[in-house]
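Table S2 (text version). Query chain:
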Amino acid sequence: MKFALVLAVPLFALCGCMSSALDDEIVSSMHYDSIACPDLIAQRNSLAARYAITASGPALVPGERPKYLEPGVGMIVPDYRSASDKERGKAIGEVAAMDRSIARRKCG
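Corresponding structure-token output:
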């Protein structure tokens, strides 16, 4: 019993690591609605170029769970991604939000 408790305490300390980090990648597109269309498109293109996010690449799915991570298990799996992967994931969320704002407002 004591051995199980010794193993459980560190796991509880790691709870929420991967799940909360992935949820932070999901960005609302509403606050981009106040930016003028040409400025928003320029900002989106700049961010996409900085992180090599292309329209012909894989679909932009911010907060996408890794294939090995079953639903509901993310809260006990620590986020072992590198800092650059975390930054790129956040950029994907921002670009996807900008895309939704551009599409909703029908910016040319």
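Notes on Table S2: The mean pLDDT is 79. Residues 17 and 78 are 5 Å apart (CA to CA).
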